Amino acid sequence: MQYDLDAIRSQFPALSVRDGDTPRIYFDNPAGTQVPRSVADKMSGCLLESNANVGGYFRTSERATAIVDEAHAAMADLLNAPSADEIIFGQNMTTITLHLSRSIGRQMQPGDEIILTRMDHDANVQPWVLLARDLGLEVKWLPFDLDSFEFDLSLLDDLLSVKTKLVCVGGASNLTGTINDIKTISRKARDAGAWTYVDAVQAVPHVSTDVQDLGCDFLVCSAYKFFGPHQGILWGRREALEALEAYKLRPAPDELPGSFETGTLSHEGMAGTTAAVDYLAWIGESMAGGLQDKDQKYEGRRRSVHAAMECLFEYETGLVIHLIDGLQQLPGVRVQGITAKDAMARRVPTVSFTVDGVLPATIAESLAKKNIFVWSGHNYAVEPAMALGIYDAGGAVRIGPVHYNTKDELDASLRSLDEILPRANVA
Questions:
Q1: pTM of the full predicted structure?
Q2: Mean of the pLDDT values across residues 60-76?
Q3: Which H or E run contains 409?
Q4: Scanning 62, 90, 178, 315, which has its CA 20 to 30 A from the CA of 207?
């Protein structure tokens, strides 16, 4: 069956909301996507029918326990984790990273080295900078090429040493959209005796993610970026997690995953996360049959989900080509990311751009008045914005289509930009 955009959009109630006579166009997706009705229904059902803590003998507690177990299993399928026990739930990626950094830091000594990158979201930068400050560690920086918007991984070879204990890198940039070669980076780190910590918040919503194939040690993502609720998830390689001391309360379990899941979890968030994974599996089952047949290494829901991600990536590639083509025809626009058509496989559809002489916030505000939702600023991508020289100038405008968006919505946005920019330039 071919990609059915109408069927996709019918799953999302938010896409039919109008303000007066004006429909909403959601291009703020890199900061948080809309959710299918099934996600909201699952969360509501959890709160109304299964609202209890886990571990009890009564019906609501038993149901809450099942919801928690189902969520771990769902995320193991989405990430192709070897075990659901390696899945850790938390409030969000940032909170999980700050929490886990404390445990990882106990493996390090003064003078040990952490490698960070100039392309990452600050959630995979500042926790490690603070850790280095507290423990007397050395931080090394992997730059990216300001013309290609990609890493030269020979520079990573120069940075790695016997003192390197951790390499932190993003799966995809939330500013430039670049997809990084995590598999190669993880191999290089492993060969040097270092762990790899991957911020996959921007990658998981767009690309098929297989932690076993990537070879990393830790990978974190957020469900609200892949059509679920506000929820953070970490996968950790069992041997790495078991080597860490978990900072926890005394009654908390010593075994994975509970040892790292501090306090009472958001059961409704976990129910919604499972529903988001099931939504992706529905796409795989109903629209990606050929891709399922092609890849036999996955089974059951895993096969459906990973086929869906390949299907969605193909559709989104068409969107990003259309968007970049349109932006490059507008006066004064510079796309801050990969633009070559033959390189689209190395980027997600998140597109940031700047305009000569116009503040990004001015453009975002003007689009908002037309009910077109985009973000402006550095979007917490402090290091890449500084590297590109746009931090002090207000960052960039960021348009982030996903698989429920349409080319018609892109065209409406491009027409609005064409109207906005000349007036802004004159002003």
A1: 0.97
A2: 98
A3: helix 407-426
A4: 90
State the distance between the two ends of the chain, measured CA to CA, in whole angstroms.
50
pLDDT value of position 296: 80
Give dist(CA 165, CA 217) in Å, integer. Answer: 12
The DSSP call for residue 337 is: S
pLDDT digits (tens, 9 = 90+) for 390-425: 999 999 999 999 999 999 999 999 999 999 997 554
Euclidean distance between CA atoms 122 and 126, whole angstroms: 6
pLDDT at residue number 290:
80
Strand partners for 82: none
Cα-atom radius of gyration of the chain, to the nearest Å? 22
Residue 331 corresponds to which tokens in the numbers above?
């006066």
The rounded distance, in Å, linking the Cα atoms of 110 and 132 is 9
What is the rounded distance in angstroms from the CA atom of residue 268 to the CA atom of residue 168? 30
Residue type, 391: Y
Domains of the chain listed by start with CATH number: 5-35+311-426 (3.90.1150.10), 40-276 (3.40.640.10)
Which residue, among 65, 84, 68, 64, has the nearest Cα to 76 in the 3D structure? 84
- Other CB atoms within 10 A of residue 392 CB: 9
What gap in Å lies between CA 35 and CA 56, rounded to an integer?
31
Asked if 318 and 335 count as a contact pair (C-beta separation under 8 A), the reply is no
For residue range 12-21, list pLDDT tens digits in order: 999 999 999 9
Q: Is 168 helix (H, G, I), strand (E, B) or coil?
A: strand
Return the structure tokens found at 52: 């209890």
